[in-house]
Design goal:
199 residues, elongated
């Protein structure tokens, strides 16, 4: 059952990243918010799978990755659920929209980046925890650990005021599409990882 949970969560994660990328390309904001929630829903059990099957010497890294994955999911789910409910369904005042509307790069936008900073931290420790049985596992480990680099930009760019509401929209889309291209192989390799694991 543990392998199946890891595998199914990896499949959902990969599918959600692809759907998120397509939603961004076609300017379907509600779709991108919705699928971002499922990236979070699936990332947590996927990381738990890495931790569960990790070698004893790597268990602590696995536990750290699970803890940060849970924090990431909590932040992201709050941000995108707010977009799909409060922001989408209500006429907000200009001041409330400046804080809550993701498109205006306000408070919830910054929380979103904090969430992805924490996700990157979780991915780094998940990479340390991955049980390597194949060449594909080693590549998965490498991709997860390198993903930790996103922690720096996601944490510090909001503090430096890099993102503004009047910035060209294509820049944000390009950055997110790059992230999707980077993260899709993680989903594919995670599927292979759980398929090939020997319990």
């Amino acid at each position: 059952m543990s392998k199946k949970i890891g595998l199914y969560s990896s499949v959902v994660n990969l599918s959600s990243v692809i759907c998120f990328a397509l939603s961004m390309l076609f300017g379907f904001d509600s779709g991108s918010y919705f699928f971002s929630m499922f990236i979070a829903f699936s990332f947590v059990p996927m990381v738990c799978g890495y931790a569960h099957f990790s070698e004893k010497k790597n268990k602590l890294a696995g536990y750290i990755s699970v803890a940060f994955a849970a924090i990431y999911a909590a932040i992201i789910l709050l941000v995108y659920f707010a977009q799909l409910t409060t922001v989408r369904l209500n006429d907000l005042t200009a001041q409330a929209a400046a804080l809550l509307d993701f498109q205006q790069c306000g408070l919830l936008f910054n929380y979103d980046l904090l969430g992805y900073a924490v996700m990157s931290f979780a991915a780094f420790f998940a990479g340390l925890a991955v049980n390597q049985q194949t060449k594909a596992d080693r590549f998965l480990k490498y991709l997860l650990m390198v993903h930790g680099v996103f922690f720096i930009s996601c944490l510090f760019f909001p503090m430096l005021g890099v993102f503004k509401a009047d910035s060209p929209a294509w820049i944000g889309v390009a950055v997110l599409e790059f992230w999707c291209i980077y993260f899709c192989p993680i989903g594919i390799l995670s599927c292979l990882h759980f398929i090939n694991l020997r319990e």
